[in-house]
Amino acid sequence: MVHPSWHDYPSLLEDLDTSKNRNLTFRGKPVKATDLAVGTNKKLDWRCSACEHQWSATGNDRVAGKGCPACANRVVHSDGRNSMANTHPELAKEYQGDATTVIAGTTKSLPWRCSACEHQWSATGNNRVAGKGCPACANQAVHSDGRNSMANTHPELAKEYQGTPPRSSQGPTRGSHGGAQPASTSGRQQGAIEWRVKAAQPARTRQSTPTAGTRWPTRTRGWPRSTRGTPPRSSQGQTRVSHGGAQPASTSGRQQGAVEWMVKAAQRARIE
C-alpha cells in the first residue's frame, strides 16, 4: 500500500511548522516531520498560513479536513486577537474570569456580574453577544441579594405565599375543588404558585345516589306488564323497572342503591 505523500497536500505542507517539529522520533530514532506519513497519528505543530495561529494536531486530523481552529473562531488565537477582551470589551467588564482566554460567542455557560446592579448569574457567551443582558435589571429573576424579591417588594403578598410547590413529573394535579394545582414549577409552570386562602370555599360535591325526600321523574306509562319478576340485565349493569317491582341484576355499590330507590319510586307512583 502506497501512503499519500506530503506533496499531495501542499496546503498542509505550507502550514507545517518545521521550526517546532525538530525533536520528533520514530521507533526511537530522530526523524523530520516530512519523513512521517502525512496522515500520521502523531501530533505535529502547525502555523496557519492565513492568520499565523499556532496549534497542535495530528496529521490524520489535518488530512480529514480539520483546519485552523482560530480561523473557525473555535479557540482564542495565539496572539489573542479574537478574545472577548478584544472583540467585546463591554462584556469583558462583566465577565467573572480572564477575558483574554475566552471567545465572546462561546456556547459554554460563563459567570457574569452586572456592572449596573451587581447581580451575579450564569449565561452562555453567545446569548450575551445576541443581546441578552442582566435578568435582574429586566426583573426576570430575583437579584442575587434579593432586593427585588416578593419579601422585599410585596410583604403583604409574601404572608400568603406558600413557597415553591414540590416538583413532580406527573404534571398538574387536581385540587379538592375541581381546580388544577401546580405539581411542578419549572419552565412556564413557574408562574403557577400556591397561596393560602383566607376564606376557604365550600367543596362542591356531586350526589351520586338519591337521598330521602328526593324525587326523580319516573316513567310509568308504556312499560310492559310482562316484565314482572326478575327483569332482564341491561348493558349498564342496571335493571328495568316494571309496575310489579324489579330486583337488581348484578349491581353493586352505589348502582344497587339507585336501583332499589327506583323500584320504590315506581311502586309509589303506582299507588298514587
Mind explaining what this structure looks like?
This protein is α+β, with helices and mostly antiparallel strands. The chain is 18% helix and 11% strand. Among the domains are: 58 residues, no CATH class; 76 residues, no CATH class. Strand 1 and strand 2 form a beta hairpin. The chain is elongated and about 115 Å long.
Order of helices and strands: HEEEEHHHEEHHHEEH
Structural shape: elongated
Radius of gyration: 40 Å
Q: Within the largest sheet, what's the order of strands?
A: 1-2
Largest sheet: 2 strands, antiparallel
Fraction in beta strands: 5-15%
Individual helix count: 8
Low-confidence stretches: 165-191, 197-210, 226-232, 234-251
Would you count the extended β strands for me? 8
- Termini separation comes to 110 Å
Q: State mean pLDDT (0 to 100 scale).
A: 77
